[in-house]
Queue: 2 jobs
Job 1
Amino acid sequence: MTNLEKIAFVGVGRMGANMARRLKDSGFTVAAVYDVHTPAAQELAQELGGTVATELKTVTASADVIITVVTDDRAMKSIFTGGLLTGAKGKLFINCATVTPAIHEWVQQRCQAKGAQSLEACMASSITQARQGTLYLMCGGEREAFDRALPILEKLGTSPRYIGAAGKAAQVKALVNMVMNANTAALAEGLGLGDALGLDLTMLREVFSQTGARSGVLQTDGEDMQNRDHACFFSAAHAAKDSGIALKLAKAQHLNLPLAAATKKQYDRMVQAGLGGLDKSGIAELTFKGRGKGVGTGN
């Protein structure tokens, strides 16, 4: 594949839009964009010099490679039964949403029936990395589809990793987010208890960083928890959804995962309280004394 082939996007929220910008900067033609929120698509299309597709079949007709970045299983089924596979023969669909492994398997079957290829490219990074082209990408599907997609993937992320057959990368992504979410909840409890004990939280974070309490979320979320800065990079609602995916996988294997279940309950509480749009760091609002009302976003 060369960057002479055209790309289109379905789903141009903050992640999808930044991925499109990155590919445009890397010399690819972003021919069309589609989003259920039409103003977002219009603004991005104008910025990138592409067109706004008002129908999914138009997206497929306009490009050789279609990248989808949608929210959940329902959205994936909706686009792949709603016209996206019209005229799909020879096209490649790169699907980046965090959805259940079964959905990726279903998408591959539908694409193959139309003479198209599909690849799941699960992302373990956030908005900033999407713009910088430093996403961590875990990929699943036919090896031939991965090889075809690689020149694009290498512009979006560092060292894209091929995991295996369709659904396998989604399994790994579910486990990544399950562990990340549990770490985030544990960090919120540690800092919350430290605050209740009257400890200096900056000192406590420094000690955590030099001991067995060190974690990736300590670096990304610890200061935000302390300062109540929950501007969203990965939402609590998505954390709840993704922990749920992992728990469904565990149930199918007859495994009991009490920590993952407890973490999901905490994120479900945030969603039920109307806080699902906050960053996952907002889980600290449930553990610090005197919080839970007047939740901040750093403003």
Job 2
Amino acid sequence: MSTRRALLVLALVAIAAPAVAEERATVGEAARELRICVDPDNPPLSLNKVGAQPGYDVEIAQAIAERLDLRPRLIWVDTTYGGRALRRSLLAGQCELFMGLPADPAAETAGALTLTAPYYSTGYRLIGAQDRSRAGATDLAKDRIGVERQSGAHMRLEQIGSHLVVYGNQREVLDAVARGEVDVGAVWLPDVDRLLQGRPVAMHALTDAAPNQPLRWNIAIGVRRADADLRDSVSRAVGDLLAEGRIKAIFDRYAVPFFPPFAGSKSAS
């Protein structure tokens, strides 16, 4: 599922023209409904499966709707094709909010997409084998780093000229670490514990701290630019939920490390 997230990172900046919005309900109508676009198969962020946890993005979206005194309605959108998913859902009027977008000002367009204040930060953690000693910190310019093809780590580390070895998925990245083909592997934060379980070669995260740039970024919520009042209301709700610790508590329920938004990133404007 990390490829879907990576495609969103890449595709956001490729939205050149806004889609024509369809007729849609507004938050001022009697239904008092807030439609929220999420992926039906992207755990632990979101999952449409009976009896399973719905995902932390779903729970955060529901908390935002509650704060706005609106009834949340989930709109399930396959995000495999990133920018196309945005154009056919949020920008086409199928929902009011699109969860989990990188807080990148370059993604915003004059007539289409805008972003709320970020509600958490995420990124990739570097994983090494415990039976190999390492002298000093990882050198992002010189060390051999295994990455999943077209992932956020692939794109961001490529931009700074890192020595990358590219694999088909994150399990293959960790296999390469175990074999010594690479010095470290980049694994998306929510996947670290799950992918390290039961591996025959002991591995460990090189740090428990928040990832450093360029492997860390803020996550915000997409809103149509025409809905500026809604964007501002959602941003205020996000700020309240962060201050109250509710967003962190949701992450804790999923055993996913929570890192608050960091300064210097885009906020709603």
